[in-house]
Amino acid sequence: MATGPQDTVFVAGRTGDGGVLASWDGTSVTVTRVPPDLLRGCLVTTLTAGNDGEVYLATDGAGVLTYDGTWGVHPITESLPTLAETGLRPVDDIIVTADGTLYVACRHLLAVWRPD
After folding, report:
1. What CATH number has the domain spanning 2-113?
2. Which of 27, 45, 59, 68 has the maximum number of C-beta atoms within 10 A of its C-beta?
3. Is the pLDDT of residue 26 over 90?
4. Residue 80 in contact with residue 89, Cβ under 8 Å?
């Protein structure tokens, strides 16, 4: 669970047919399905939200996914170690700071990405 701008609360979960991202703005709930091709059968392990409203989802193998109205794979994913036996990039934890710097813990490595 993460809190974003205007106290929006974000929660990631899994349904029978894949992952979802739910947000609650104090009035209504919005549920968005995570595209299966991005999630690749992996689970969301944690998430955080930036001040700009972008949500960052750490996964147990698909790296870091992003959502700001459009889904994507964060560029930091390419810098993360890959498990040789599976090709997965598991992320243990993430945090984004007020200036948009993203810190990612992945298999005894701390990766840092700063916005341009």
Report:
1. 2.130.10.10
2. 59
3. no
4. yes
